[in-house]
Amino acid sequence: MPRKKKTDLADGFQFVISNGPKLPSDPAVRTIIRRQAMRDVGMERRVKNAAEKKIARERPVPRICMPDQLEQQVVVCRARSGYGSSKEASQGTGSTPDVVLEEDSIVGEDYDFEHWFPARHDTEVFCPSPFILPVPMTGYEAARCRFGIDVSMLDRLTSFSVGKTTMGQLAEDPSRIYSLVLDSAPSNTHSYLALVPKRYRESRVLTAVTDCLLAKASSTLMPSVDAEIAASKLYAKALNVLQRSIADDEKSIDTDLVCAVQMMTLNELLDPSRIDAYAHHVAGSTRLMKHRSSRAFQDEFEKALFHSHVGPVVSEALHNNTHCYLAEPEWTALYESLATDTEELTERSELVISARKLIFPLPGLWHNVSKTLTSECELKVTVVSQLEQRCQALDSQYRNWLETYKEYCMSRTLAIPTEQEINIRREAYGQALESHLIVKILLGTMTSDASAVAEEIRILAKQIMDLQKQPGPRHSWLFTGQEVGVAQVALANSNNFLEDLGQLPPKERLSRMQKRYMSWSGMLRGS
């Protein structure tokens, strides 16, 4: 019986485990493992080939206009999927269609291969094909082609209504992201993303973060293993470059760095599970804004960055029950300076700007009411009176804005508003009613005899619920969800404000006010 040949460790299949390379002692086990590995590779190749054939059938190559002699001899069989392998995609090259010359066709000897293209002067339109004549691209165009995404598709993510609540809504229903990305935003949104392509190669940090955002958007809208791996690698690279730039004193006030940090918040929006990372980027953007000061925003790019920064900052302040630095006079004045005079309503129209700036003091007012009513210290009448006056002042400002809004709509009753005008009106009006309702609830909490306020609370809440019956755009879930939540809490607690606390002793009055506050605040904050 022939003796078995001893296996050479150098030629054997190496298995790497945590303790280093080690071979199984039984040759039969090694054979089974090798067969299984080859079987898996074959299965993966068959699945990949079937997917490529399916894509080729669904996306036929468009007919190319070319000279008749060449057209008769060239048969375009099929074109593979847009980017080919992940290696080709990373190099910026795409796959080309398989071109087969028919065997029974012979090109004439007198055919001019070199000059047929420029010598064609007839009236037939020539349709260039990216598969046949690829156009060399550099900079942002190459990045856009590589990932199949343009940053302008993400313009709506920079709007005022996008904030921390959006993360929860996307986590609940991830398909909602398509209504934000695929439905194009209005042309005059004044988003800073429109200016990113021109600055793509001007700074390393902006280039790295732009690639990261495009890769993440591509993997979110067109999920695949390769896209997810590429997005993860570019995310790590972007964070590394970002941290180095922030640590550099000279670059810490650079406009491109501010833009890069805000673009990272958009990257986290595309992954709703990273809500903590989103909050960190918003906080980082706030620190950079304060470091620059309100006087540093001069050109249009800087103003667009600040305009897109406002919504997330207000959302964070409301969720965290903290003061909003935008309520400081110099920052409010900067926001007011962003207003532009246009024929139709936009995100930066004076009417919209004047409504949203009223939200800036609301987080601080809410924080002070909460601190006063939850403190163990003795309640002071002067403190309660001051808070009540602040609530009344903000309530009066909202009343004035609502009157201005009605006058604006009445002045345009004879004109047919555009779809964009209708959408902006609905969003701004709904946000004003929602914020006004919160102010009313705070006022009812701090007022001893709040029976009149209770009726106003019910009226505002019903107005918000009636708004939901109106048709809206696909992305209206951004603001309608918050409106409905506040209105439902207000209706559920409106009867709590009917009791007159004016005749009660100070301690008992404080106790009843605390119950009022904890009842609606706990429901609204989910605590």
Structure description:
The structure is a single chain. With 527 residues, this protein is mainly α. It folds into 2 domains: 140-337, no CATH class; 339-527, no CATH class. Helices cover 57% and strands 2% of the residues. It has 19 helices and 4 strands. It has helices at residues 27-58, 68-73, 86-90, 140-147, 164-172, 177-181, 204-221, 225-247, 255-269, 275-292, 300-320, 329-336, 350-356, 362-374, 381-410, 419-446, 451-467, 477-493, 506-525; strands at 16-17, 20-21, 74-78, 98-101. Strand 1 (16-17) and strand 2 (20-21) form a beta hairpin. The N and C termini lie far apart (80 Å). The relative contact order is 0.06. Residues 4-21 and 59-133 have low confidence and may be disordered.
